[in-house]
Known about the structure:
CATH superfamily of the largest domain: Response regulator
Number of helices: 8
Number of domains: 2
Number of strands: 12
Strand content: 15-25%
Strand order of the largest sheet: 2-1-3-4-5
Structural class: alpha/beta
CATH architecture of the largest domain: 3-Layer(aba) Sandwich
Largest sheet: 5 strands, parallel
Mean pLDDT: 86
Order of helices and strands: EHEHEHEHEHEEEEHEHHEE
Oligomer: single chain
Radius of gyration: 19 Å
Distance between the termini: 55 Å
Helix content: 40-55%
CATH class of the largest domain: Alpha Beta
Amino acid sequence: MSRATVLVVEDDEPVRSAVSDGLSASGFEVAAVETAEDGRRHVERSRVDLVVLDIGLPDMSGLDLCRRLRADDGLLPILILSARDAVTDRVAGLAAGADDYLVKPFALAELVARLHALHRRSELLDALGSEQNTLRVGELAIDVDRRTAAVNGVDLQLTRREFDLLTVLARNRDLVLSRFTLLEKVWGYDFDVETNVVDVFVGYLRRKLAAAGAADVIRTVRGVGFVIDSPRVSAP
Length: 236
């Protein structure tokens, strides 16, 4: 794996120093800032492969910064590192556009492993960009190499996670995928049983699909999961 550059946005100096030193010792190039505004400026001006982001920043919520970074770059891997450990907090972080969420206190080895996983996934997406790959389900067209989706030519403005979820469902059309399967395939690891993050993101997708004229693309199978069905062919 290539040497990745990590931006740490953390206002607590001891935590910021510990994370920076630990990641540097683990082979990452590290830049560390204290405020959301400094983080935003650094991403604009410098190469950043990964972001480690605290929620409780002095000038702006880390969730708001996450949304801004995600709006600017739909592919930038973002890991939230926070002491807020409720399921609702983790869901809020992922809904804001984060790719991962790790609760403080944490083991450095786990943070390093998660960052390596995010970076590998990011590099894989870049590599896949050279392969022609288009998925079509009725009026829905997904250009995997360009990471774009459209309904009847109307582009869908999707976040990275929304695009990945839609692509997994489309690749497995006519197969009902459970929430646990989607968590593994899209988020890459398990959450607590009670999490509703899949339902939240399916809801986001449905609203965007409906606005483009495709309200019934994703079907819920009660008690099981979700599926995208192949279009029905009318009998002659």
